Prior knowledge:
The chain is of the alpha/beta class.
Amino acid sequence: MLEVRNLTVKYRGCCALTEVSLALKPGELVGLVGPNGAGKSTLIKAMLGLVEAHSGAICYNCQPLKEQLHRIAYVPQRSQIDWNYPITVQNVVMLARTRQRKWLQRPTRQSREVVKQALMQVDLWELRDRPIGELSGGQQQRAFLARSLAQQADILFFDEPFNGVDRKTQNIMFDIFEQLKRENKTLLVISHDLSETIHCYDKLLLLNRQLVAIGTPKQVLTATNFQRAYGHHLNLISA
């Protein structure tokens, strides 16, 4: 169980998050939704220790999460990645295996096999020697999905992974999320897309600097909750 208890994050005296509490169970695909500036990325970064929490606790299996960061795979927003960095697709994914070997040590046979399987899962094995910057947006996103798979983590965070991707990539990602659920992984996905894919999630967290609602998509995306989070009526999907 991944738990956040009374988490508050402040920037320059202003609250980015206020008293957020939630629990994520293994084997569930959880979507984190809310308006721009709601604190969605801040929540994940606070859980990762990338931003400092003003107060609150973040635990995994009753132990501080900051002491178990090796169990987390994190895929940031595409805008935070330098796509011009001279590295191949295969080496991007191999970076996930650095904990399994000493610095400058050649990858083991097991690591090479794990990386190959991850790239095959996202349909990028044939492009493994291509510079990452030469891929399409959807292919780049799949490369970082493969990196998260190769890390073999228990907790996986994705920050808006569907932005600017093609339908093939979207389908591959949801298929892999289903596989990870069967493996009892803990999955948290930030999304701004409230189209029909919202019903692919087992649970939604609706956030606007504080937790507005938590539950199934039908329970969360009510007119009242939408008004509280977005400031206007629900008119994008049928909840």
